[in-house]
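Run log // design_07
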């Protein structure tokens, strides 16, 4: 059994409703996965392929998904949340800058974001975003290889319209216009 299979088996064994213990256990397993030697075939292949996105695993019973992303330097993803889902980003190589935001509704009803913080995650580091957390990402040292663990299929969340994305305009981040 390779390190990927071991980590996924360990996550499956602790799976349950969202709790501090579940998040900590999943994060710990992803941080352990980041220690995988490049000699393991699955990781060597990922590093060679450098695909924008590759699904590594989808749990048939629990619904969680593990994706790998290869991102070029300066790739930026505007602020967004993950709807009702929660996510862990884990950096295998490179560096990803992640900003966090608070959503503010002004007296006139307009929504805008206020930036809280920026953190640079390097190889071996992981970051958790819970339901409703808003963040952006920028690859500051690439190509970066990162794992994105989601507790549900976010493509389904996007189709259901539960994910929120923001756009820059007039000097602020605000809600993306509905189409």
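design_07 sequence
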């Amino acid at each position: 059994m390779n390190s990927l299979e071991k980590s996924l088996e360990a996550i499956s064994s602790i799976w349950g409703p969202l709790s501090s213990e579940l998040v900590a256990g999943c994060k710990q397993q992803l941080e352990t996965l980041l220690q995988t030697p490049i000699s393991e075939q699955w990781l060597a292949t990922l590093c060679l392929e450098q695909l924008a996105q590759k699904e590594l695993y989808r749990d048939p019973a629990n619904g969680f998904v593990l994706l790998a992303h290869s991102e070029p330097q300066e790739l930026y993803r505007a602020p967004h949340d993950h709807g009702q889902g929660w996510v862990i980003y884990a950096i295998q190589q490179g560096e990803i800058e992640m900003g966090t935001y608070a959503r503010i509704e002004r007296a006139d009803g307009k929504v805008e974001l206020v930036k809280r913080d920026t953190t640079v995650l390097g190889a071996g580091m992981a970051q958790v975003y819970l339901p409703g957390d808003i963040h952006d990402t920028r690859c500051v040292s690439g190509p970066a290889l990162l794992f994105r663990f989601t507790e549900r299929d976010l493509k389904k969340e996007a189709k259901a319209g539960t994910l929120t994305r923001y756009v820059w305009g007039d000097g602020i981040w605000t809600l993306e216009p509905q189409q």
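The CA atoms of residues 68 and 147 lie 5 Å apart.
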